Amino acid sequence: HVQLVESGGGSVQAGGSLRLSCSASGYTHDRYCMAWFRQIPGQKREAVATIDTDGMATYRDSVKGRSTISRDNAKNTVYLQMNSLKSEDTALYYCATQIGLGQGTQVTVS
Description:
11 strands, four-stranded antiparallel beta sheet, 0% helix, globular, seven-stranded mixed beta sheet, mainly beta
């Protein structure tokens, strides 16, 4: 079955950096687009970044220039490097593909 497991979240001060990782299994990873979403309690889940099978990336405006999504198909892993973190980046971050969604990793920026 499809399994997506996120890691790398944590608590950082504003201006700091984190690299989130998402390990995928149970399907042919390199055939699917991948995405990172985030959700703040009481708000809708929002897309942060996407990466297609050719490695083309898109970002929501609020993280452009501060975040980089990448994928390593040999490791079935997708990453989200986040720099210059702001308090408004605080959220539960999810990894997703068209056929699955992870459990999330918490990012807290103070």
